Amino acid sequence: MNLRLTKAAELSVFLNMKLTLQIQLFPDSGDAGKLRETIKRFNEAANWLAPKAFERKLTNKIALQKLYYYDLRDRFDLSAQMACLCISKVVEAYKRDKEVQPSFRQQASIPYDQRLYSFKGIDRVSLLTLEGRVIIPMIMGKYQQELFGYAKGQADLVLRKDGKWFFLVSVDVPNRMPTPTTDFIGVDLGVVNLATTDDGQTFSGDSVESIRQKYHNLRKALQKKADAVKKVGKRPKSIKRKLRVVSRKESNYRRNANHIISKCIVEKAKDTGKGIALEKLKGIRKSQTRFRKPQRAKMSGWSFHQLRTFIEYKAKRAGVKVLPVKPAYTSRTCAECGHCNKANRPSQDIFYCKQCGHTDHADRNAARNIRARALCQQA
Ligand SMILES: [Zn+2]
Predict the structure, then answer these.
(1) How far is ligand 1, taken at its centre, from the CA of residue 350, in Å?
(2) Are residues 280 and 355 in the same domain?
(3) In whole angstroms, how large is the CA radius of gyration of the chain?
């Protein structure tokens, strides 16, 4: 085999990143019925097959196919490709845990591959059902449209409990090679500002905080109602539903804000040819102890883990290096003279060095320390 080819192939595996796009579908009621029936039948077939694979201890797709393929097609009227996907689904579930016989919900999501679906432009997808193909309108966000071209073929059709339809598409996004960097943008993730860079750019938590508060109050009120209903011995079904909607809205809001912040930071790094330095994850949770109680609640209310993940993968895609640094004491060490003292931090947002008199916004001082550590580690 050609060695250069192999190397290139290895490299591309290393450089690719797998993501899942969640695209909402809008079938009319007729098509929704066909999709629902297909999902139901597929899961019935999987539930029929699962005990057979389990009893015979079969984890081999080909072996199962030999035994049950025609049965699956005859009994459940699945297309050839759907029967194969059904067998794979059962085998994969069984392999995950060989102690239990797999079972599938009647409305569990089902896999689609490229023989069963095709995109018709960016706003419609054709899906095979038991009654032939249907063409379903779909809506993609801008971000999804950007990545859509990398769709690989594997997808899942999902019917959510609230009746909404989604098509989850795996994409394989090529990463760029990280450009060699000599400098870093230090980024501090915090409470007053969700993110602060060492040059003082802040991504404020103010509006974010008021909206978080709004959702928090809404949830609390609903929870109270639910408890009251429970007390009189009824089931708070509709309140529970509302609670789920509120939680989902809140997490969508959070995700969107995290997308925007991470995009800004990564673009900035890319434009200036710098890498990004962040505190190691452990440090974020640990450093929560430096906040007083109400702030600690705020802190856990924000998904810093998600923000970090977004920064990391967007950076990867843009070829920007991300360097995690040691988190200890970045908030109480002076970025000018290096003096480390708890008293340097008289309040949540002010840094004032007891030794050299340097004053700064506390988050910016921390971001500068983070950058300095990255430069140290790099050297
Ligand atoms: Zn100082």
Answers:
(1) 13
(2) yes
(3) 26
| 201 and 127 share one domain | no
Centroid of ligand 1 to alpha carbon of 347 (angstroms): 16
The tens digit of pLDDT for each residue in 212-262 reads 788 888 888 998 998 998 888 888 888 888 888 888 888 888 888 899 999
CA of residue 294 to ligand 1 center, whole Å:
29
Beta pairing, strands 184-189 & 275-279 = parallel
Count of domains observed in the chain: 2
CA 368 to ligand 1 center in whole angstroms? 13
Distance 162 CA to ligand 1 centre (A): 56
Pair 145, 280 in one domain = no
Dihedral (C-alpha) 146, 148, 150, 156: value to the nearest 10 degrees? 150
Q: How far is ligand 1, taken at its centre, from the CA of residue 329, in Å?
A: 14
In a domain, 3, yes or no: no
Q: What is the mean pLDDT of residues 15-39?
A: 89
Helices of type H across the chain: 3-15, 29-55, 61-76, 80-96, 142-148, 206-231, 237-272, 281-286, 293-301, 304-318, 362-378
Domain with residue 198: its CATH number is 3.30.420
Tell me the residue range of the domain where 89 lies.
12-174
Instruction: Please indicate, yes or no, whether residues 353 and 297 belong to a single structural domain of this protein.
Output: yes
Q: Are residues 26 and 147 in the same domain?
A: yes
